Amino acid sequence: MTVKSNKGVILKAYPKGIPKLDENFELTHRTIDIECLNLKENEFILRNLYLSIDPYVRVTLQDPTSIIMKYSKGVLTGQVVNGLGVSEVVKTNNPNYKVGDLVYGPIGWEEYSYIKSDDASVSSFMLVNKELLKDTPLSYHASFLKFGGLTSYASLIDIGKPKEGETIYISTAAGLTGQLVGQIAKIKGLRVVGSTGSDEKVDFLLNELKFDAAFNYKKVDLDKALSEYCPNGIDIYYDNVGGKTLEVALEHCNRFARVVACGMISQYHVTNPEERYGVKNLTNIVLKSMIFQGFVVTDYFGKDIEKEFDKDIIEWIKSGKIIYKETVIDGVENIAKTFVDMLNGKNTGKYIVKIADY
User: Mind listing the pLDDT tens digit for each residue in 142-191?
Assistant: First the structure.
């Protein structure tokens, strides 16, 4: 039987604020006839296995008239939402892939993805080294060993330039990026301080990841907390939040501090530009001779640092220097809920959705 179920999640309406499950998303029941599809040159069909649940997807769900969409390709209402994940090639007319290959790249929130020759993503896929599956589960390759891990490693090393004895402060420290940045910083000999949104996550950072200090930002005055936990100031601020958190952290940054601007999740849900938080003390960047740099992970593709990451991360996993915590949720029907839960801070570690068995 070549006609397969191809359930998918479409964008029902553009979110205002944090997305709502029933208001903004819809599960559609479709089919795909794999055998009867005539593939053009370079096209292929994927059976999606594991999907990474990432905050950046929220940016792609903006109304096309939003100013932020000048810099990012968005999802139109009625279209399947897109993300990143691991898939199996089930049909191909692309010389780079054969049936049975495992690939990582941009896929839909759906059971099967048809990658067409005119898709910008057609050249964005990378093969998964099946030899690594002897030491790591396939779910790790949906983010941790790919874009997610490279994001943490490359930005910290390249922009943060960590030095032994320095202090790093990480916001949203219990997510994938934060937990990896913190552990890599520990390996490099830094004092690691993290903030997160629940006491359970604080316990995870302190007792499992061995951060030097961690606190629940919902229960403290941030300015006082940073004075207490970063008594010698902040040398690297790894920012995932932006807004008020960034403003307070800048006051505690030392001369020649580095700010790694990875994300600004506090602002992703603000659709009216006039309602976005205006950081009031950016003069600190000048007066303290600081480096403040943003990035996208694709900046590091094909660079030596990508090869260094591939080598170091496997070595650290095998030696137990890196602990990676993920929560795997089953079923395409649970993708949207898992995404909304992630944006509401319900995850500890990384959320992955398992779409199919391998």
Answer: 999 999 999 999 999 999 999 999 999 999 999 999 999 999 999 999 99
3-state secondary structure of 328: strand
For 25-54, give the DSSP string: EEEE--EEETTT--PPTT-EEEEEEEEE--
CA–CA distance, 102 with 330 (Å, rounded to integer): 19
Topology of 147-299 in CATH?
A: Rossmann fold (3.40.50)
Q: Which residue has the tokens 């902040």?
A: 234
Segments making up each domain of the chain, as ranges: 3-143+325-354, 147-299
What is the architecture, at CATH level 2, of domain 3-143+325-354?
Alpha-Beta Complex (3.90)
Rounded CA-CA distance 9/82 in Å is 9
For the entire predicted model, the pTM comes to 0.89
- Determine how many CB atoms are found less than 10 A away from the CB of residue 22: 8
SS3 59: helix
- 213 forms bridges with which residues in the sheet? 193
